[in-house]
Amino acid sequence: MPTPQPQTATNAASTHIDAAIVGAGFAGLYMLHRLRGLGMSARVIEAADGVGGTWYWNRYPGARCDIESLEYEYGFEDELPREWKWTERYASQPEILRYINHCADRFDLRRDIRFETRVTSAHFNESTNRWEIETDVGERLSAQYCIMATGCLSAPRRPNFEGLDSFEGDWYHTGYWPHEGVDFTGKRVGIIGTGSSAIQSIPIIAAQAAHLTVFQRTANFSVPAHNGPIEPEYARQMTERYTEVRRRAREETTGGVVSGTPNEKSALEASEEERQQEFESRWKKGGFALGGAFADLAINNEANATAAEFVREKIRVTVKDPATAELLCPKDYPFATKRLCVDTNYFETFNRDNVTLVDVKSAPIVEITPAGLRTRDAEYAFDCLVFATGFDAMTGALLGIDIRGRAGETLGSKWAGGPRSYLGLQVAGFPNLFTITGPGSPSVLSNMLVSIEQHVDWIADCVAHLRAHNMQSIEPTPEAQDAWVDHVNEVANFTLFPQANSWYIGANIPGKPRVFMPYVGGVGAYALKCKEVVANGYEGFVLRA
Ligand code: FAD
Ligand code: N01
Question: pTM for this structure?
Answer without folding.
Answer: 0.96
